[in-house]
Design goal:
This protein is α+β, with helices and mostly antiparallel strands. It has a domain at about 40-130: Arc Repressor Mutant, subunit A. It has six helices and three strands, in the order H-H-H-E-H-H-E-E-H. The chain has helices at about 25-30, 40-45, 45-55, 65-70, 75-85, 110-130; strands spanning about 60-65, 90-100, 100-110. The protein has a three-stranded antiparallel beta sheet. Helix 3 (about 45-55) crosses helix 5. It is elongated and about 60 Å long.
Length: about 130
Amino acid sequence: MADRNAARRIPPRETPDEDTPSTPAARSRKSAVKKSPVELDRVIHERVRLAIVSALAGARSLSFNDLKTLLDITDGNLSVHARRLEDAGFITCEKTFVDRMPRTEYQITPAGRKALDEYLDHMESLIRRVREG
């Protein structure tokens, strides 16, 4: 008799080799390396993550609620995308209490500023090529 659950099984994880980065931040940086003129940094290129980094680039810091309101996204959506940016080293997250209420503040890091600048330069280059071509 065939195993009904065979299709549902998750394959075993591959063991990382010497060239595979072991931390989430290292994996994110490695995946962000551009391999061709049209390939974009996937960490920054995603719409919500680009919006988060752009908003933080124009402010000293923003709270979780400020970002959520500014970007008009859900708590879960903001949490997931902010975590991805944090794992890549592009933003920092500081959790404190203000009048016994939790407060989460985000700031862009120098690496995040650099990644955003490189992303914008790359997009400007693509736009120039299209307009000239």
